[in-house]
């Protein structure tokens, strides 16, 4: 139970706090996620997150080394595809932004492909707007064509991805499952060393973050907050007893996240407790789901939804500038730009 490391939180919801994690915290977390995330000796993992990131330290550093995996390190975030082709990984662990960019690139290639083959692939991949659903044989052929090309670009050996650190849009998760490259989405926080829940590889449910680790207890409080108890919960905050008392109550870690459990024990995250929008009618609206739907569109790079004490919601949209220029032209007027973005919003 001696302190092994002090990891500072990102400070997105307040001042950064130093999370004290013991050797036992880290080891128990690895023991807990291995039954759900199958890591084993001989696999090769491409590490793309900074080693200061607690998710990377727990899975791609401590966990990988302890279990005998080979670890290759990406040069930079913008060289990930080149590094995958060179290192031939079996697994890649990343944050949703990486999968969003990869999804956008693959989808863009399908959308821009002309002729009958392009239409065939769009229908088979389920992105043919307004078209009738694809037959099973069409989905199968599309999957083979796309996966063969994509696997080569990803090194040729990739079995699955692991996503954590932020919510992954369910549409993106389903897209990769359909291609035979499943994304294991999990949930965690620095205070839990960090993994709290994960989808089992053989039973992934897009839109959920999976089941609580087998060595953790989890429950939903009366106000919807997710509470967790177990051996991987932190010792406390460094030199901050008041924050520790607020977060650890009777051994339960108050995550600050709002969620629910389905009958099979899969955890659904709604939003951060502090991020819920309360509109002028007093309704609680989680903006995260709307933002994810918007950012799943290739033309939308970032989106922020707000509307506290207002009768409607608004979104601040930052488009993909490169793709926008291709769609409407370099010298297009504001009306053409707004029309293209509005079409993406309507699709979302």
Automatic annotation (TrEMBL):
Pfam families: AMP-binding, AMP-binding_C_3. GO terms for molecular function: long-chain fatty acid-CoA ligase activity. Gene3D superfamilies: N-terminal domain of ligase-like. Signal peptide: none annotated. Residues 2-238 form the AMP-dependent synthetase/ligase domain. GO terms for cellular component: membrane. It comes from the Bacteria. This is AMP-binding protein. It comes from Acidithiobacillus ferrivorans.
């Amino acid at each position: 139970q001696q302190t092994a490391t002090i990891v500072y939180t990102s400070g997105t919801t307040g001042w950064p706090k130093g999370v004290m994690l013991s050797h036992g915290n880290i080891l128990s977390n690895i023991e807990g996620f291995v039954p759900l995330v199958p890591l084993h000796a001989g696999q090769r993992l491409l590490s793309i997150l900074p080693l200061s990131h607690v998710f990377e330290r727990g899975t791609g550093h401590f966990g990988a080394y302890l279990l005998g995996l080979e670890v290759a390190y990406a040069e930079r975030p913008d060289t990930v595809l080149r590094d995958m082709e060179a290192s031939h990984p079996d697994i890649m662990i990343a944050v949703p932004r990486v999968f969003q960019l990869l999804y956008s690139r693959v989808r863009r290639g399908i959308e821009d492909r002309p002729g009958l083959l392009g239409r065939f692939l769009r229908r088979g991949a389920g992105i043919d707007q307004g078209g009738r659903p694809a037959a099973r044989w069409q989905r199968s052929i599309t999957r083979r064509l796309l996966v063969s090309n994509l696997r080569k670009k990803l090194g040729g050996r990739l079995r699955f991805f692991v996503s954590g650190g932020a919510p992954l849009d369910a549409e993106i998760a389903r897209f990769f499952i359909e291609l035979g490259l499943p994304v294991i989405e999990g949930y965690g926080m620095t205070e839990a060393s960090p993994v709290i829940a994960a989808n089992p590889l053989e039973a992934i449910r897009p839109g959920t973050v999976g089941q609580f680790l087998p060595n953790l207890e989890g429950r939903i409080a009366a106000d919807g907050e997710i509470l967790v108890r177990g051996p991987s919960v932190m010792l406390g905050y460094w030199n901050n007893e008041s924050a520790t008392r607020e977060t650890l109550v009777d051994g339960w870690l108050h995550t600050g996240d709002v969620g629910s459990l389905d009958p099979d024990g899969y955890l659904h995250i709604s939003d951060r407790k502090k991020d819920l929008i309360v509109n002028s009618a007093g309704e609680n609206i989680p903006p995260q789901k709307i933002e994810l739907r918007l950012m799943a569109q290739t033309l939308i790079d970032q989106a922020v939804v707000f509307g506290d004490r207002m009768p409607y919601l608004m979104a601040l949209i930052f488009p993909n500038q490169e793709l926008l220029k291709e769609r409407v032209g370099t010298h297009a007027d504001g009306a053409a730009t707004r029309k293209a973005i509005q079409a993406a919003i309507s699709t979302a």
